[in-house]
Amino acid sequence: MVVKTLSRTPIKEITVSDIIEEMQRKDSLLTPSAAEVASVKPSGTNSVQIQMKAVQRTWVREIRDEKDTTEYIMPVGFDRRIEAQKTVQFLLGRADGIQIRVNGKDLGVLGKADEIVVRLVVGSDGIIEKRLKKSTKPSHASGDSPGQR
Q1: pLDDT tens for residues 99-145?
Q2: CA 72, CA 77: separation in Å to the nearest integer?
Q3: Which residues are CB-neighbours of 134 under 8 A, at least 6 positions away?
Q4: What mean pLDDT is predicted for residues 9-14?
Q5: Considering Cα of 125, then 112, then 33, then 68, what sign does the dihedral take?
Q6: Tens of pLDDT along 59-95?
Q7: Which end of the chain is more exposed for a tag (fewer CB within 10 A), N or C?
Q8: Is 97 in contact with 55 (CB distance < 8 Å)?
């Protein structure tokens, strides 16, 4: 009888920061130039108008009115305008990467360089919910996610 042993390859644990970093590398070529202004408008009446400006290169996931999901990279200087009927939810790779205005009210940046915005819900009156998480990356690294400077 012949017994074969399978070689076991170690499994590498991947953090959320690693996933975001990999997505940013892949999306870099697809990101519009910083001179462009992106605008997204839903059909119907709008009650939430958001203006975003990237102050650090940042990965963003947005969900407009709990149904339209978009992911993208905002390079430094890039402006984006979003309109929704009720709410917009965000996940941001850097809490210090985006300046946000909601219906003309300046909310500034949402956190520190070593934080990720794991949930931000914005309505017509401003922030409804905001949850931050410390990044697992060391602060001496360089990149798009929090703590990668």
Answers
A1: 999 999 999 999 999 999 999 999 988 999 999 999 886 544 445 54
A2: 14
A3: 114, 115, 116, 146, 147
A4: 75
A5: negative
A6: 999 999 999 889 999 999 999 999 999 999 999 999 9
A7: N
A8: yes
Q: Which of 146, 20, 128, 17 is nearest to 71 (CA)?
A: 20
Q: Which amino acid is at 91?
A: L
Would you kindly state where each structural domain of the chain is located, as residue ranges?
35-134
Write out the H or E segment, with its range, that includes residue 68. Answer: strand 68-74
What is the identity of the amino acid at 138?
Answer: P
Q: Is the pTM of this model over 0.85?
A: no
CA-wise closest residue to 122 among 105, 102, 108, 106: 102
